[in-house]
Amino acid sequence: MKLRLARRVIDGAVVVAVEGELDLYTAPVLRDEVREAIRQDGPRLVLDLESLSFMDSSGLSVLIEAWRLATGDGGGVCLARPQSPVARILATTGLDRRIKVYPDVQAAVDGV
C-alpha cells in the first residue's frame, strides 16, 4: 500500500493524517509534507498515525527530523493514535519518551 497523507489545521496546530506504510520508499513523501506543513501552517505539528500500518527506521528518522524542525521553530510534535505495531516500535526505540503520544487527535492538539 502506498502512503497517503491529509493535512488540516485544528486549533492552531497542523494535523497530518498518515495512512499506509512508512518505509524507505515512502519516507521522503512524509518528510516533504512535514517540512511544508511547518513552513505553511506553523511549528505545532500533530501526526495522526491511526491508519499507519507499518513503520521502519526510515519512518523513525522522519519523526525525529519533524521533532527537530518543529522544536527549532519554537513549536513541537505530538503523535496521535498509533496502532500496536507502530506503538511497539516507538516504545522499543524510546522515541515515545521524546515525542509525546496521545490516544486521540484533540488531546495531541491540546498537548503540542
From TrEMBL:
Transmembrane segments: none annotated. It comes from the Bacteria. Residues 3-112 form the STAS domain. One of its GO terms (molecular function) is anti-sigma factor antagonist activity. Gene3D superfamilies: STAS domain (3.30.750.24). InterPro entries: Anti-sigma_ant, STAS_dom, STAS_dom_sf. PANTHER family: ANTI-SIGMA FACTOR ANTAGONIST TM_1081-RELATED, ANTI-SIGMA FACTOR ANTAGONIST TM_1081-RELATED-RELATED. Belongs to the anti-sigma-factor antagonist family. This is Anti-sigma factor antagonist. The lineage of its organism: Bacteria, Bacillati, Actinomycetota, Actinomycetes, Streptosporangiales.
